[in-house]
Amino acid sequence: MTINTPPHALSSHDVASLDDTLAGLDLAGRLACVAGLGGRVVFTTSLGIEDQVITAAIGTHRLPVDVSTLETGRLFPETVNLISETEERYDIKIKRFYPEQDDIDAYAAKFGLNGFYDSVEARHACCHVRKLVPLAKALDGASFWVTGLRRGQSGNRATTPFAEFDAERNLIKINPLADWDIDTIKAHVSVENIPVNPLHGRGYPSIGCEPCTRSIKPGEPERAGRWWWENDETRECGLHVADERQASTIPSASPDN
Ligand code: SF4
After folding, report:
1. What gap in Å lies between CA 46 and CA 5, rounded to an integer?
2. Residues with CB under 6 A from ligand 1
């Protein structure tokens, strides 16, 4: 399979074939396979533990994948520090994408700076400004979007494939860790000595923006600390369209790492 045609022109058979191929490869093989298909490959990292595993593979194997992050302006200091630490460790550049100040000002005027606690609409509007708009810039011109989605992260992600067509963004989404469980992730991080966010050790398995992430209690699902004041059905941020399709109450314009 080569990407001589734009992603939207690929058949569902092509994408299913790629999904089958990726299933038989290890992480580095999956990334190298996609990088060898001919289109621009963009990986957006939230600096979470899964994304650190992917960044380490890209850096270690010097793969031609653009690594980007959405610097929302509301990240934990630990997350911001990890960006530069990771760049130094793997001798790579992580490109930061920021929200527009005019959009932030308009949001604050309408909802208040922390208006996301008041309604799902307000929360999705904030995610739109701080995540979705920067994401669109990060993915501009990309044929493939690599993510750290795993099937074990939540019920909404239980059927995550290795490759899927993202019709809204007109690209192929690649989830090379779809079949990894959290214990495998942790073991890999330990063996490879991959730098991770210190918040993971303080009860934060999933880390997003500071005001929208809390630590979880033993036995809670991995993403229970994300937008904890909302119902399960709405707790994605719109970055991942397939999640939204399954969570039918989510409006079309809200984001997540
Ligand atoms: S996670 Fe919270 S602070 Fe971050 S963009 Fe979404 S609503 Fe805004």
Report:
1. 30
2. 72, 74, 116, 123, 126-127, 130-131, 208-209, 211-212, 237
